[in-house]
Amino acid sequence: MRPTKREYQEIRYRTAQIKQLVFFGFLLLMAVIGLIWFARPKESTIEKRTLTKFPKPTLQSIWDGTFFFHEKTADEAAGGVSTWYADTYPLRELLISGDHKVKALYGKQGNQLVSNGEKADEIPTGSVDLEQLASMNKTEPAQTEPPATQRIDTTASSQSGEVPVDTIPAETTAPATTEKPAGAGDAVTPAEQAGSIYITENCGYGVYGFSQSGSAKYCLNVNAVAKALNGKANVYCMICPISAGIMLSDAVREGIGCSDENEAMNWMYSNMDPSVTPIKVYNTLKQHNDEYIYFHTDHHWTALGAYYAYREYCALKGWTPHELNGFETVTFPNFLGTFYSSSNQNPSLAANPDTVTAYYPNGTNEMTMYSNYNKPAGQYAEYGWKIIYDVSGYPQSGLYGTFSGGDQPYNYAHNETITDGSSVLIVKDSYGNAFIPFLVDHYEHIYWIDYRSFQSWCVWAGKPYTSISGLVTEKGIQDVILCNNINSTGSSTLLDTMAQIFK
Fold this sequence. Notes:
The chain is built from 17 helices and 15 strands. By secondary structure, it is an alpha/beta fold. Helix 6 packs parallel to helix 17 and helix 11 crosses helix 14.
């Protein structure tokens, strides 16, 4: 029997009431969640940044309203209460992920260039005055890498049963401790930013812009190291290409304003002291650009890309490199790296996550490192660690942390299968992390430092030096490899940091 008109109206009324109750109940629930103070995140795993801090109230800020409504600028830690509330909402990352999953259903995405607007310089020809060129004013280039602040997640399970100690032990022995934290290189606080990115066909590519003043200053820094180590150690320099210069055609690269990386690297090598041996890897990587040598969602090369660089170093040293099938491997799927976070979580990148493959050294997988996790600025603790670490419990954005302990200021490994006293120091940014494991099998003593935080570590450790030459002299190191990605050679901030220890 069909309902009467009155009954039909009552059904519509009750349905409308239920909808209103559901709607306002949802709003109330979301408001209550927003009031859960202790559940508010401090850092964003997806966006790889520190979130807005709660503003400190003052009479002035309350009076003029900025305490309640103020947009946080790039150099500010806190904004207004409204900005803090929105930026640290407990379900924020879940909602962001959901939004991008919906956008991924829109269909194929067009090409996209995520750029900071920096214009590249012309690459000089012929001889130049490096001092004069370095003194030219130049704004920050396309990619910058702030000082390393990677951390360790001490909340997860142990892998080898060691805990941090705050003393300064002998670097050649693993710390005698009983519990070990489970993560090197916290993905939430990144060491590096991706810079300009070109996105096409579900892949991101790092874009390089040549800086005359920056590149000249990089050469001067390298030459300072060569002078300081003259007669003490062999100096090698490996400028690592980034993905656009290797993976894209010349036409596409020129179309997006990307400088010629090979030309830029050759110019820098030609202006270095003759005692510096360049490790030229561009042509080798270009020959293998049909392979998985760069990540699609991150600015690093893969371990396979680093392996081809390792082969070039072996050729210079007269060594027979190990074949890939001579290594045990481990893989970590679903990696979403810096391109993803720096492109506002581009849906096409989310649909094409990376797999991180790592190759275990044959000689040893044990290392010692220092980290400032949960420490005041300038304070460090020692950790026993793994050169290839199990990061299966890490967030998607942190899987590159499997390599070499991440970006820590000072690290050491002793390969007891070699007893000839051979030693190497790798001075690196994060590109060196995937390169280091391949060197372990060829030296008895392997040291690596991140130049962005090494000086701070030296001060904490009570060293009488804060320089590469000081460490080389103390340890009697024979080979020094300067390993930086090409965008590092144009950043005024990083070059100033290098200058403080490249001596």
